[in-house]
User: Fold this.
Amino acid sequence: MATAIEVAEKAEREDIRSRWLLSTPALLIVFVAALGPLLIVVVYSFLTPGNYGDVKWQFSPDAWVSVLFERDVFDDTLSLATAYLSIFWRSVSLSLATTVLTLILGFPTAYFIATRPDHRRDICLFLITIPFWTNLLIRTFAMQQVLRNDGIINSVLQLLGITDHPVQLMYTNFAVLAGMVYVFLPLMVLPLYASMEKIDFRLVEAGYDLYATRFEVLRRIIIPLVTPGIVAGSILVFIPSLGAYVTPRVLGGGTNLMIGNLIELQFGQGRNWPLGAALSITLMAIVMVALLFYVRNTTRSDGAHG
Amino acid sequence: MVSRLPPVNDHGGEGNILTATRPAVEAKGVTRIFRGTGRDSVKALDNVSVAIRENEFFTLLGPSGCGKTTLLRLIAGFDYPTDGEILLYGQDIAPLPPFKRPVNTVFQSYALFPHMTVADNIGFGLKMLGKPKSEIEARVDAMLKLVHMQELKNRRTSQISGGQQQRVALARALAPQPKVLLLDEPLSALDYKLRKEMQIELKRLQHETGITFIFVTHDQEEALTMSDRIAVMSSGKILQVGSPWDVYDHPAERFVADFIGETNFLTGMVESAGNGRARIALRSGAKICATAAEDFRAGGNATLMVRPEHAKLVKGRGDLTGTIETIVYFGTDTHIHVRLDEGDVFMVRQQNSRSASCGFENGDKVGISIGDDAAQVLKD
Assistant:
């Protein structure tokens, strides 16, 4: 005879087993489709580049060395690889600028939508998502039409007599930034809206009632309450903009590369797959460090309010 | 820095005779029209005028949609009147935003800040007024003590019960020492026992702080037990303002009598009137004497009201006669429903005693005796 305890233990074991069984398909996809390729990338970064692309199965730390340093052609001494570092720096700073700008533009937009009556909110949200219906490449080329020397902005400027020759907008950091802000703005507005919609606006009234001015209500009540939305939106904008490829390629031209373009170059014309792999992992590491830093910081400042 | 009215309680504690009768809040011809989409617009307040005295526990009572909350929101500053003035100690505050009014609100849902502790919630108003930290701490502690919440000071507001949240909301609104405290159905979310406790607690707080309370409720019992004066409202208008005793025993019109307490209504014809009294002839021929306002003339139709506890059941003939239909036992008293000979149902409330039953049974032929002072003639 099994005692009650044994029966309970057996049931629990079976329960755990069936849980593992049920999550197997999902775990399989995660391992095969996400972790597996990642592992291949890690392995490739330690190999020697082949002559026509691909890799030779021969260990070499060269790829990792050249992420940070460049070897002098004549005396083999190492110096900092300023070319790559400047591309990394441009990527990070442009992504940060994109995140901040989309936040500044997206916050009032989301607030406006969240304070409309229900039926108008749906229309507003619908309008926000319309750009997603068009291919990213086409939208980026549309931006090009706006920014070109004979594009809309320059035509208007010349028509108004503000300048007599076109202002160079294309192939600048400004063009890349403008393009990325345009592309990523909905990704900021939607999570912001989602957390603003949940705010009980009586809390805002309570703030006013307790002598808080509009600015203080924004600072001490609305912003702390939408922090989850700000975090989610910033992550959703920062990560893809760090890896952005199409926008800097089309609007930034050959001189304003970002990491994404650099990586593509190694796998394409550069024929240096290990370096491409090493750069990819470096990019991922930057994203992870930034994320860790950001999430920890925002949760702590949230805690400090209370 | 924006200029603010000082939220300081400047009356000298107790018994300042000069200011005792000065209105703390006065609404003068206030109208609020909500324009909907298209043509439908709602008149939430229709030319309302009322004066609320200093240190008074004043209640706005009425069914939902009568405009009581709208009036409260106008005083708080969350909404602006379409027409009319709102005066605070004689000063028109209608154009001021809420953060410039020395008035605080206890919200129906409490509206506590979920990202702050109990102490931070209570100190919020003082912080916004730019008070020094030491003063805020002392005041928060005093407030916590006032509402018996010292031990929960550092809890998050999501970690305390509904009754405790209610106390925090009260303490938060009282902390800046407003001249007037507005309470928007603050007890409606509490269960019966807790509600009774908080009613007494609110009365005590009002007495201890000497702040003018304006209390909104649809619960007539709550209004009667707590208020110094009650304004009964219906469809955007104030029907009557008076003490609980006034509105219960001398309702100005039928709606007030019907909304507050239980009432028997009888219809008849005025036979004679004068000197504040009238003689009403009912359909059955019974004649009843009642108090009446001066503007009733002989020959007109009239509605008569009798409170169930002011009538008495008698065996044999009374002022009215009928048959007992149902007897409902309520613990403290018994309600006896009598079908009158003329057709209407009349309810009589009898106090119970421990030893005896009510003394009547279903189907008994009984008389109802109405005392000299028990009936009142009402305007419809």
User: Anything to note?
Assistant: The longest strand of chain B covers residues 23-35.
